[in-house]
Automatic annotation (TrEMBL):
This is glycerophosphodiester phosphodiesterase. Residues 13-304 form the GP-PDE domain. Its EC number is 3.1.4.46. The keyword Signal applies.
Length: 307
């Protein structure tokens, strides 16, 4: 491996297991997280939402149809509700309408790339507490694995008189993550949430940025020079152009003192123009990124070892 990296700190970039080893096993399950740890991921990534009784659980979406077997539970058949979302109206079962006891009766089930995943319908929905217990147990064994925690749509919880910032911070404090030396990043797409965390903690913060084409469509722009966070979570399209060549994004971010974590690299569907994730990962490491979210962390660790 290279002795010098083009990262902000000069340190080796981190591999973040995106929702666990989510290319292999249903996302946000203990099996997906444990596999990521075995494969050498530096961080595992829980996306967090909250139940009606205030339990933080790891789910990518506020609704439950896409990643659980809830459609097969007749007792919940009349609990589907239409909601307005930033992406339009959507009818579904929403995690914050269900108690944790109810959610515990569900199993993880999803499609990956159009196919049902192995171990569907056998794995439980995982709490943030259980994920923290996993990295704490790992630390006891001498293996430090960090948490790259994403708060999902925190403005929704604020709009119903709740919030995500205090529950997340309180939960981490109660578990003693800091005392155990567990590295933590807090990431979010919504700036006000990160501002609240900044007021209430000294945790490093990552401002997630929607992909360049979507940002243009939604009229969003991000000013790296005035970004108040420690880094950005950037879609690959910011860092590599259509020909797979590096843009000036990493340089500009580093000049502004920002870390660049990039999402998401997948083995089975690398971003065009790449047909092989090894080449995509190498291009990103060469561009000087500070971290990569990977669905297949083993591949990212392997390529990092060859750079
Ligand atoms: O958190 C950044 C990365 O995970 C991309 O977002 O949650 O939609 O997969 P997500
Ligand atoms: Ca995420």
């Amino acid at each position: 491996a290279a002795t010098a990296w083009n990262t902000l700190t000069g340190e080796q970039p981190i591999v973040i297991a995106h929702r666990g080893a989510s290319g292999l096993y249903p996302e946000h399950t203990i099996m997906a997280y444990k596999t990521a740890i075995e494969q050498g991921a530096d961080f595992i990534e829980p996306d967090l939402v909250m139940t009606s009784d205030g339990v933080l659980i790891a789910r990518h979406d506020l609704y439950l149809s896409a990643t659980t077997d809830i459609a097969d539970h007749p007792e919940f058949a009349d609990r589907k509700v239409k909601r307005q979302t930033p992406l339009g109206e959507h009818e579904d079962w929403w995690a914050d309408d269900f108690t944790f006891a109810e959610i515990q009766t569900l199993k993880a089930r999803q499609q990956f790339d159009g196919r049902p995943m192995q171990y569907n319908d056998t794995l439980d929905i995982v709490t943030f507490d259980e994920i923290m217990d996993l990295v704490l147990a790992e630390a006891e064994k001498g293996n430090i694995v960090g948490l790259h925690v994403e708060a999902k749509w925190p403005s929704h919880y604020t709009s119903i008189g709740k919030g995500l910032a205090d529950p997340i911070l309180d939960a981490m404090k109660a578990k003693g993550l800091k005392e155990a030396g567990i590295p933590v990043y807090i990431q979010c797409f919504e700036p006000p949430f990160l501002a609240e965390i900044a007021e209430k903690s000294d945790l490093p913060l990552i401002q997630n940025m929607v992909g360049a084409p979507y940002a243009a469509m939604m009229g969003l722009s991000y000013d790296l020079e005035t970004m108040p966070t420690d880094g950005v979570g950037a879609d690959v399209s910011y860092v590599l152009d259509e020909d797979g060549q590096p843009t000036d994004f990493v340089d500009r971010a580093h000049k502004a003192g920002l870390l660049v974590h990039v999402y998401t690299v997948r083995d089975d569907r690398p971003d065009a123009p790449f047909t092989d994730s090894h080449a995509e990962l190498k291009a990103l490491f060469d561009a000087g990124v500070d971290g990569i979210w990977a669905d297949f962390p083993a591949t990212a660790v392997e390529v990092r070892g060859q750079v």
